[in-house]
Amino acid sequence: SAPSPTENGGGGGRSGALVPAPEMERIDVNPPKGTRDFPPEEMRLRNWLFGHFREVSRLFGFEEVDFPVLESEALFIRKAGEEIRDQLYCFEDRGNRRVALRPELTPSLARLVIQKGKSAPLPLKWFAVGQCWRYERMTRGRRREHYQWNMDIIGVPEVTAEAELISSIVTFFKRIGITSSDVGFKVSSRKVLQEVLRCYSVPDELFGKVCIIIDKIEKLPTDVIKKDLKSAGIAEEAVQELLQLLTVKSLTKLEEKLGHAGEAVTDLKQLFWLAEKFGYSEWIQFDASVVRGLAYYTGIVFEGFDREGKLRAICGGGRYDRLLSTFGGDDIPACGFGFGDAVIVELLKEKGLLPDLGLEVHDIVCALDHDLLGPAATVATILREKGQSVDLVLESKSLKWVFKRAARINARRLILVGNTEWQKGMVGVKILSSGEQFEIKLNEL
Ligand SMILES: CC(=O)Nc1cnc2ccccc2c1
Q: Which of 18, 126, 229, 380 could serve as a FRET partner for 28 with CA atoms 20 to 30 Å apart?
């Protein structure tokens, strides 16, 4: 049926008349501010990276999950002063619902765990690779989206869960050629802060907020941190003790300060003992200044860093034992990490480890003249049914054009469908690397 006037560019005019749309000036062909396209070459690198994310997750027996990019805004409303909250990409939809593009994956994962309830017996080992969003007002040219690999273990209170997660990231680094001289993990526990705050009888409600303030210790001057802590209601001597404690870089020193019985010290000793058993001791170090910028962490926290100190944190994670209960779920322990797709690529560039990923096509099939396009399609189908990738030349093109395209797509063989050969049930084959040329029967392809 003739397209209605609104179709085909809305030519309009008499109903059904196809008049060309007035010459429009060109649309903006760039993606929205802060977002990226993935043309073939970039998509090959992304698929390579995500392929390693998925393969490591499989090696560790994790199951893949996914959630909508769009969530209820309420999932991310936390009152701890996190940057992720200030930059929430949120809006009111046509149903007047407050919604947001997810800035992280963990709250969605927690939502799904609660939704599944008893039908998902614990422990759960789930992973996801998903696009996350932020809306920065003054875009300092920073991206508004990135992809994150998340792995989470739900229902395991033991530090073995954190040790397993760090092992999975070490496995990933090794697979792509990153060593423990390139990167390390700073490991600490928020229970260090908790124990100090409790000594000064700071109410637990302030815990998340204090962590977020302290997380900025390397980004803001100390007196700003002090001021913020004081205005959060932390006593002067508690502030002094906290800041002093953050400089501790050895477990022995920490034990001297906090004693050996507290959970912070016992958890961390257990983690370092397990690291030796997993074989990644040389990858991790205790560093009390690691806090991470998400309010819901409650225990061990860790972040991957580049030892040259040129880049931002490569990945980060930790234990979040209270998140599910804050969503009204049961009191289920959990831990996980997020691994972004940006810093790791910068690191690979720095280390000269970016893989050389070209398009690989096995055969390019072309008809030597127009009425052989049918037989060429037959030949392409035979080859594809054998599992070989085929670029079928879809128009009658000069051999010069075909050779140029064969080189561009890195084809291994050129299959020529010509009249004389076809009459004998044969096709011409040219091995493009050696130049060797011969004729073969269709069933020998
Ligand atoms: C380096 C980088 O692109 N970072 C980045 C980019 N987009 C985000 C979007 C949401 C949350 C965190 C994000 C972090």
A: 18
User: Which pLDDT score is estimated for 79?
Assistant: 87
For residue 151, CA distances in Å to 28, 218, 225 come to 37, 27, 32
Radius of gyration over every alpha carbon of the chain, rounded to an integer in angstroms: 29
At residue 36, does pLDDT exceed 70?
yes
- Any ligand 1 atom below 6 A from CB of 345: no
Q: Is residue 123 reached through a cis peptide bond, with omega within 30 degrees of 0 on the bond before it?
A: yes
Ligand 1 centroid to 100 CA: how many Å?
Answer: 15
Q: What is the value of pTM for the model shown?
A: 0.91
Identify residue 213 by its one-letter amino acid code: I
Q: Report the alpha-carbon distance of residue 117 to residue 111 in Å, rounded.
A: 10
Among 142, 140, 129, which residue's Cα sits nearest to residue 36? 142
> What pLDDT sits at residue 9?
42
Distance from residue 191's CA to the centre of ligand 1 (Å): 27
ipTM metric: 0.94
Rounded to an integer, what distance in angstroms lies between the CA atom of residue 97 and that of residue 93?
5
Residue 319: what residue type?
R
From 149, 201, 204, 194, select the one nearest 173 (Cα to Cα). 149
Q: Whose CA is nearest to atom 2 of ligand 1?
A: 342
